[in-house]
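FAQ: What does a ligand-bound record look like?

Like this one, built around zinc ion:
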Amino acid sequence: MVVRSRGKFRIVDTPALLDDHADRGRDIFHFYLTYFRPIWTDCTCEGYFADNFGMVLWSKSPQKDDLKFLMETNCSKVSHELAHEFLRQAGYKNYKELVHDIWDKHLFASLPYEHYDANNKQTDKDALFATIDTSSLRL
Ligand SMILES: [Zn+2]
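The answer part, i.e. the structure of the complex:
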């Protein structure tokens, strides 16, 4: 996809999104769902974050209307990036490591995601959203 940014035509990439973020105001949190992976990132989930900025690859399922795929693959990654920002805003100095420790447990230790229904209530059935496990983040 080609966009016009700052008077130039360019391919949408992470720097283009960072420019868009700057144009809209660096003091406002902006989150982007993208069709590409960031070329460079220190994030472990096909996303990228900076202060007041988050982006993540939104993957398409090979099957139509595959809610489980969207929930487990995309919502979990979105919650990963949002967790970085929420923890940063809450003043946690280790907001990157906290999230990546949880993410590693999801990937390598079979830690289940948290699931939520249409009313944003945590559920084990009729789930529409999956997030990283936040039980270790509660005070
Ligand atoms: Zn991360």
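Follow-up question: can I read anything off the structure? Yes, for example: The longest strand covers residues 30-34.
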